[in-house]
Design a protein that fits this description.
Length: 507
């Protein structure tokens, strides 16, 4: 007779996590049952902390192996390594910045009952507070020789393996774990904070004022993009998530804030890839009595100062080890001239639509017929012929008029506007204008955009009467720029956009 009982299924990682959680829940129950007062248990409201781990590491950086300080300190951190022996237990406590200190729990210092409780109740991932003398172990490890300890927060789920990186998908979905286990994640988060601080410092040095503009708007504007639509019950109306703050910041310039900037969140209902996110951080700035040349100078300074704030130099080292120089004076090239040189034929604002269409077809460059214009073809051809060959940071100057409805016409070149795009690492980092301030021409440009929308261009801008009314009160000559903060981080770190955003949107 044959035994047909199926073999038990092999244990999975999920099974192991389930078992560990059950064990930890039992420890939680014990901690709650044995607590003396509300300050104890698995999740006390307060634990002793007199010093931070980074501060102690800095203060005692030169402490010799085996030395004692005679100083008692209380520190708290997450346990990321633990080793229990008979009469002495070791644990590495990690602070939020990744710095660590060793906790030593010995029979001689804490007594048998406390030592046994440590062995039975403390797990990897738990937050603990330890109090004791600051010493250096015989191996030279800065340590706290504990005389007392307490659980600060009981972890019910285990940490990932500290020596095996999470997958990219795991990192972005569980960034809190990524921050615990991976130094690069912590470094990137801190670098972003330094970048934002540097941007504000540079603007302050140039006497700019930081403002806030609405995220919910009655109608979207300031960029060629498809918006997210939401509904306001209070106003019984559809509203749009901001695609750009431009039209509101220009209102501020009309109102007399001659130098204004905003670091904001924008939302565009479009694709997501290695350089695009539906929700992203944006910097926009406007300087009255300047133009696209002056705002280019400022943008270069902003980026270079941010690089120095993060790395100490304008030569940045990317995640793959590549060294990229953001220093010096950046190149400025003409879109039409650089395209002509690369294509081997003269392409100007006067080049016919038919000639551009034929060239695009020959090169396999596609632009949907319903939205194809002279300018769109020129820009697509430029990306095809020129974009991939840019190595240094480069301002690409002087764009076609029909793709730039908010930009002033070039002062000497017909059919061109005073606009630049800044390319770094092969992607567009920022764009800058000599702003269009003539309300009559602006109305005409909006009408042209409306015609494109009627032809099926769902990214075309809409006519904004409130903005036009502001312009009719007089806006001074102004240079403006917009720059993606996420992309600035990409330029400095060499990482993809999802790595530079702390909590990126994922399905």
């Amino acid at each position: 007779m044959t035994d047909t009982t199926p073999a038990p299924a092999p244990a999975t990682a999920e099974d192991d996590v389930f078992e560990q959680k059950a064990v930890r829940l039992a420890k939680r129950e014990r901690l709650l049952a044995e607590r003396v007062d509300a300050a104890g248990g698995a999740y006390p409201v307060h634990v002793p902390v007199t010093d931070t781990i980074p501060a102690l590491r800095e203060r005692y950086a030169d402490l010799e192996a085996g030395a004692e300080t005679g100083v008692t300190a209380s520190v708290a951190g997450r346990i990321v390594f633990s080793r229990n022996t008979g009469k002495l237990c070791f644990a590495s406590l990690q602070a939020g910045d990744g710095s660590r200190i060793q906790a030593m729990v010995s029979l001689a210092e804490v007594g048998e009952e406390s030592l046994q409780a440590w062995k039975e109740l403390v797990d990897l991932g738990d937050h603990v507070s330890v109090t004791g003398q600051v010493i250096s172990s015989r191996r030279g490890e800065l340590s706290i020789m504990a005389t007392d300890w307490t659980i600060a927060a009981k972890a019910l789920l285990p940490l990932p393996n500290m020596y095996t990186e999470l997958s990219e998908e795991g990192r972005v979905r569980s960034r809190y774990l990524d921050l615990i286990v991976r130094e690069q994640a912590r470094t990137t988060m801190l670098a972003r904070a330094k970048v934002n601080a540097s941007l504000r410092e540079t603007f302050t040095a140039h006497r700019f004022v930081e403002v806030e503009t609405p995220m919910l708007q009655v109608q979207p504007g300031g960029a060629a993009a498809r918006p997210f639509v939401t509904r306001s019950n209070a106003f019984d109306a559809d509203l749009y998530l901001r695609i750009a703050p431009e039209l509101y910041l220009k209102r501020a310039v009309v109102g007399g804030i001659d130098r204004v900037f905003e670091i904001n969140r924008n939302f565009r209902n479009e694709g997501a890839d290695s350089t695009h996110s539906p929700e992203f951080a944006m910097l926009e700035a406007y300087q009255a009595y300047s133009d696209y040349n002056g705002i280019a100078d400022l943008t270069q300074e902003l980026v270079q100062n941010a690089a120095v704030a993060v790395t100490g130099t304008t030569e940045v080292t990317w995640a793959d080890g590549t060294v990229y120089d953001l220093g010096g004076q950046w190149d400025r090239i003409s879109m039409y001239e650089s395209l002509s040189d690369a294509a081997g034929r003269a392409i100007t604002p006067e080049t016919s639509f038919e000639e551009l269409t034929a060239l695009a077809a020959a090169e396999g460059v596609g632009v949907p017929e319903k939205i194809a214009t002279h300018g769109k073809l020129v820009e697509e051809l430029w990306e095809h012929f020129v974009k991939g060959n840019l190595e240094r940071p480069t301002f690409v100057m002087d764009f076609p008029l029909d793709t730039s409805p908010l930009v002033r016409e070039h002062r000497t070149i017909p059919g061109v506007v005073e606009k630049w795009d800044l390319y770094i690492r092969g992607f567009e980092l920022a764009t800058g204008y000599s702003e269009l301030v003539d309300p009559v021409i602006q109305r005409e440009r909006f009408a042209e955009q409306a015609a494109l929308a009627d032809r099926g261009d769902d990214e075309a801008m809409r006519l904004d009467e409130e903005f036009l009314r502001a312009l009719e009160h007089g806006m001074p000559p102004t240079g403006g720029m917009g720059m993606g903060i996420d992309r600035l981080m990409m330029a400095i770190t060499g990482l993809g956009i999802r790595e530079t955003i702390l909590f990126p949107l994922v399905k």
